[in-house]
Specification:
It is a single chain. The protein has 317 residues and is of the alpha+beta class. The chain folds into 2 domains: 147 residues; 164 residues, Cytochrome Bc1 Complex, Chain A, domain 1 (2-Layer Sandwich), CATH 3.30.830. Helix content is 49%, strand content 21%. It has 14 helices and 10 strands. The protein starts with a strand and ends with a helix.
């Protein structure tokens, strides 16, 4: 089954941008913890965060209760983050926000360490507080980390991932593989070029098309890599996902079972018909999620990259 939850942290006493940086460091540290304990993050589920000026929210959906226990132990422990990840996550925030950062490093490190001692709350029925006013926020939060907009130094690129002329069985398998393919695409591009995922699409097969196509839009530094550079690393996507599937076949069982047992996903067959013209059921989709079928998909994918255009954004809407 799918194990979900929400953690909340009161951050009213801290600089918003430092708290946002902490969110990045926290999620990265948990993913490293999962990997160290034998779970490839892409097959374990997802963890996400959103930071506001008064509160940080960490939500998750994990396919195995053991992975959820790892998260519970991780988030209730201290220290949680590693400052060794600080340069990479600062760079990633710059790409996310199309901005350049100025930082008072000792003060930021000190504030990060203080946030790391704070206790997250989960499933607390009586949590309730009013945010500070804008004046109070400015007053209590020193400007030790600032973002300066620099949109001209960043650009969006679009990755097109295609399966040509798929059979009905291949299309059924691809549709449920799409989240895994997008997750690994993000991992590869972030690792190679510090990218930030902006938008993704379902696998779409228009009625007059023979191909099924996934679209992913990523922000990168304008001087960080050429389109040719990016295209060269895209073959790592099926290679990395195949490696994860081969070494962690039991995780695939949890992924399949979570799909079947999650009521919120009962409407997925409607989406599959909307985007790919496929009429099927959850049970049939799950039956197609075999190791052999997924490897067949990975061996037949092709990749292309270009500058993002309006049509790409519409594909991800």
């Amino acid at each position: 089954m799918l194990h979900t939850g929400l953690y909340i942290l009161d951050i009213r006493a801290y600089n918003f941008d430092v708290a946002h940086l902490y969110e990045h460091l926290l999620i990265r540290a948990f993913q490293d913890t999962l990997s160290a304990q034998g779970y490839p993050p892409v097959l374990a589920g997802w963890i996400g965060g959103e930071t506001f000026r008064d509160a940080m929210f960490i939500d998750y959906g994990l396919y195995d209760e053991r992975a959820e226990k790892i998260l519970q132990d991780f988030i209730s422990s201290t220290p949680r983050i590693s400052l060794d990840d600080l340069p990479a996550e600062l760079a990633r925030i710059e790409v996310e926000e199309s901005a350049e950062i100025t930082i008072e490093l000792p003060a930021v490190q000190d504030m990060l360490a203080k946030i790391d001692t704070e206790i997250f709350t989960k499933d607390v029925p009586n949590i309730n507080f009013t945010p500070y006013t804008e004046f109070e926020v400015h007053h209590v939060q020193p400007d030790i980390l600032k973002l300066h907009k620099a949109k001209a130094k960043f650009r969006d690129v679009t990755i097109k991932i295609r399966l040509s002329n798929p059979t009905t069985d291949q299309l059924t398998t691809l549709l449920r593989m799409s989240p895994l393919i997008h997750d690994v695409t993000s991992q590869v591009l972030q690792r190679e070029y510090g990218s930030y995922e902006q938008a993704t699409s379902w696998a779409r097969r228009p009625r007059l098309s023979r191909d099924a196509t996934l679209t992913a839009i990523h922000s990168v530094r304008r001087k960080g890599a050429t389109l040719r550079d990016i295209k060269k690393v895209l073959p790592q996507i099926p290679e990395q996902l195949q490696d994860n599937l081969t070494r962690h076949k039991s995780a695939l069982d949890h992924y399949r079972e979570a799909f079947l047992s999650t009521p919120n996903w009962n409407s997925f067959p409607i989406d599959y018909h909307r985007y790919a013209g496929l009429v099927t059921t959850k049970q049939n989709i799950a039956a197609h999620l075999t190791y052999e079928n997924m490897l067949d998909i990975l061996n037949n994918l092709s990749f292309a990259v270009h500058e993002t255009n309006d049509e790409d954004w519409r594909a991800c809407a």
